[in-house]
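Protein chain data
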Amino acid sequence: MPGLWGRGMSLLRADNLSLSYGERKVLDGVSLAIEPGEIVTLVGPNGSGKSSLVKLLTGQIRPDAGRVQRKPDLRLGYVPQQLALDPSLPMTVTRFLNLPKRRHPEAIRRAEGETGIMGLGERQVSQLSGGQMQRVLLARALLTSPELLILDEPTQGLDQPGEAAFYLHLERLRDELGCAVFMVSHDLHVVMSASDRVICLNHHICCEGTPHVVSEAPEYRALFGHGTGGALALYQHEHDHSHEHHHDHA
C-alpha cells in the first residue's frame, strides 16, 4: 500500500490479527500501531496470547487472519525471554554478541557501553546473573541500531532492584537513541513510569491508554482487580522523586 507510511508513519501496524492453535482461539481481532519513539507496555494474564502476539509482530509466525505491516526497511531489535542455554556449552559474551553474524568491534563496544556490560566480554554466558544476561540480550538487539525494540517479558525472574535497573536502561535508550519500545510485562499491576501507553490483552485488546487511564478502566479492573487494589501502579525510579538532589546513576 504505497502512501500508507507517508500518512501515519507508524513503525509497525497490526490489523485485525486472529490466531488459533487447533480449536483454541489465542488472538481474536487484535489491532495496534506503534509510533516512533514511544514506549508501549503490553500486559495480560498467563495464556492471554502475549507471546503469540510478539511472534506475529516479529514475523516468527503468520496469523490466520489479518496482517502485520512494518515501515519499509524497519530496523527491529528483539529481546526474547530468558534464554535457557546449556551450561556445558562454552561461549563467551563476545562470541554470543557476534552471533549469528560477526559485528564490528566498535559496534560491540558501543552496545556494551549503552547497556552497562563493559568488562563482561570474556565471561562465560552460562555464568552470568539473570540481570547481566538480560542486558547482554539487550546489547545484542541494539547491534541492529533498531528503530523499534520488542522485548518479551524481559524482567521475568529478576528481583525488584534488577527490574528497576533494567527499566531505567530502557528509558535512557529511548531518550538517547530515539528508538520505540514495545515491552511485554510479566507483572499485571506495575508498569514502568515512562510508558506512553499500556495495552491490556486477554485474547483481544480489552483496553489501552496512558497508565492512569488504563488503571481506571472497568475492563482492566474486571480482569486484574486484585493485587494493588485494582489499580495499576507506576514503577517509579528513585530519580523521579529526587529532582532537587543530584542524579548519580553510576
